[in-house]
């Protein structure tokens, strides 16, 4: 068998493995059940991809993240490695064809969601596959105490029954000790080889700052560190708002959230990756699978929902091992906001039942029907139709999604239906004088039968692909055809796609997951408390606090976080006299605002403002008409 390092060099252009990677790969090649707990950026995917390339057969990869599956398949295909993903929205015929290709097409990787594994067709075809390895990505989802528990993950063990002789590798970047034990038990590991890489990041400084004016602090941080940065915010509105603020301050920025079109996401991502833009402002929808090692700063403008998600997002800074910063900005109102957002808006079992019934009625799904039917979904229109609180309703949909009742794919799309309203001979006379429409019109006619008889839903991306153009161009031409009276056009905005995974059974459906809903409410309360404890503890090293949360009890202070730096400074290093002299020296060069003074002095805002008040009281300095400070004798 070829040595793993040769595969690494051939496909990834690396000449050495990261810590633990080679040992994990060898464990998998030896046929051992393997658990890999590696921090964000530790290179988890290589740990199953290289063994799969060395072994004969196909590797089944179970993942809950559709976007990440698509991204990994695209990356593997670009390397000349045959891979496919069974995502939502596939017809039975399409699924049947893909599974045949997986069996007979010399594929090396088959990515599936845990829900897909429940389908009888999928299970029957897996029996016929020459499976070399089973990889369970984001394995913490299998544990009821994991950050994103998905009950469908509990059924992955069925793969072991279908392929009892195939070993399994489980991978995650965030798992507390009891979660690790739960994963090993749920996957029926026998004498597993467990590999843990310490989560300690020697070059990453965790910093918590209390700021009443967070935008001003953002500006000063990014002006000081003119390098790639990510700012995480709570919602889509803040993405564009913060990005616009930074642009107004001559700091180049773009933004990313689930409401952008695929084209907008790709354009904004490319501009940031290629450093045409310094800053990416994003919701937590951003970051999975992003490989940008030189991110200097990750800033959380709002409190995260859990230590797990914070640690993963913060860990996207400094992967090149240069000094980097993970900065969390907080103020007095944050505690109430996080409790309101993540606790007060947790749905009860009864509310989940009501939303599920309304959702089924909204799409006219009959009792006992609807399994694997997909619909474009306008979230705001749904909330308005039933007068639902948007945040509470969204969290309810997330409960249904995590528990495999539905699959909610968030994307902004225009739902397009059209019908040709002129006779064929009139249409072709029109094309004679509008030849630039010909390819698109003929593409539509070849894809959709009956489009002259009735209003037909069309897939603009599919048309664009067939016509070798962009979706934007397709939309523009359809509008022109409508204006010219050639077609009847119906365009509705959607921001998601919903797939009903189970047949509708109303309360019976929700009763099966009632205990899980209650348990997840308890877990979320514990997670929010852990976040509040973290930001409120300015006595223990930030890194020690985080590592302790993940079970590393023997870690030492990092020496570079805000707590360590505060504790490291000798008391005489910043005496009142020295601070006073620094302020006077600054004002000797001219009037200064309090912000200007604080930006030049290595003291806290509270200490600086206190000293300014003292100097005012002793008439050493004075306030000018423009609210700046000056020396009294000048």
Topology summary:
Blueprint: H1 4-12, H2 21-29, E1 34-37, H3 44-54, E2 58-62, H4 66-78, E3 83-86, H5 92-104, E4 109-112, H6 120-128, E5 131-136, H7 157-162, E6 168-172, H8 177-186, E7 193-196, E8 204-210, H9 214-224, E9 229-232, H10 236-248, E10 253-256, H11 262-273, E11 279-282, E12 297-300, H12 307-314, E13 324-330, H13 334-344, H14 349-362, E14 373-377, H15 379-386, H16 390-402, E15 406-420, H17 424-433, H18 438-447, E16 456-458, H19 460-467, H20 471-483, E17 487-500, H21 507-511, H22 514-536, H23 542-549, H24 562-568, H25 576-587, H26 594-600, H27 605-617, E18 621-623, E19 629-631
Summarize the structure.
With 634 residues, the chain is of the alpha/beta class. Helix content is 45%, strand content 17%.
Q: Tell me, rounded to a whole number, the average pLDDT.
A: 89
- Describe the strand arrangement of the main beta sheet, using strand numbers: 3-4-2-5-6-1-7
Q: Got a strand count?
A: 19
CATH architecture of the largest domain: 3-Layer(aba) Sandwich
Based on CA atoms alone, the radius of gyration comes out at 28 Å
Low-confidence stretches: none
Taking the alpha carbons of the first and last residues, their distance comes to: 82 Å
CATH class of the largest domain: Alpha Beta
CATH fold-level assignment of the largest domain: Rossmann fold
| Shape category | globular
Helix content bin = 40-55%
β content, as a range? 15-25%
